[in-house]
Amino acid sequence: SDHFDAARKKADEWFKHMGRGGSSEEKSLKQVCEAYVAHLAGEGRESASKDAAGRFKRWIYSNAKLASTSIQKLTQKQIDDWRKNLRATLAIPQDKEKAATRPRAEGSINRDMTTLRAALNLALENGDVTSDHAWKAKLKPIENADGRRDMYLDQAERRKLIEKASVDLAPFLKALCLLPLRPGAVAALNAGHFDKQLSSLTIGKDKAGGIRKISLPPATAAFFAEQAKGKLPTTPLFARADGKRWDKDAWKEPVKKAANAAGLPVAVTAYTLRHSTIPDLVNNGLPTLTVAQLSGTSVAMIEKHYGHLQQRQAAAALAMLSL
To answer: What does the pLDDT look like over 161-180, one tens digit per residue?
Structure first.
């Protein structure tokens, strides 16, 4: 009978799973995602753990049927449908009162897929499932989603942005203009992270994961010394007017207003400053490895997004060899 054939097929699949060293405990996709979040936290990657938890809550747990699916029974179609849903969802506007009209950025979709793929691969590594057939092809990243960083502000434009910023935002933006850091890394700085005696700044665990120390030139050190003056070591080095630490939800609108007042493009964000300082360092001939270490990213990422600048430098250097 059909019931008997179905039961036998299910049994065959189970024994194959066990024969490959699979776990005897069936886990749902939600449990697999939760295990990945816990795994990140266990490695001390609190920021990444929190980010993954947020993505899973929005894109996995909200789909009860998908979330409850056994990882061993997950199909390509389910993953494909999930991916299509990601691409069909509109981006949430910064002004929550406005209706969503813009498609989500492909880079953002890639990050959602990368997080799920990492959770599924961990489940594979742990023996919760013995094949990546369901997701290997369906969770391939969208190509060229994070292309070259083309939004750039020159130094005059950066100064103008700072001048038009509110009193509490201006120092935060100036820090982003002085160092090629992510806004989140600057927001996470405490007064104690600056060492006045050594003129150095310790950057905590960033998106790249590692703690690093940066030696500051005199003018930059003086700026950070002024920000740290009179503050307890554990208090934010850069705080909002209400004393709270900056975060992406707090700086978005103020940066937008400052950019508008400065007559700058509407696409300017806090991240634009990072994507403006890194090209300056590359153009000034700083070795790619040093730029990567300062900015808390990999050499590969620097070459991918800013390699065209190095190519121009190389062309100019070759021109000097002309006879």
So the answer is: 999 999 999 999 999 999 99
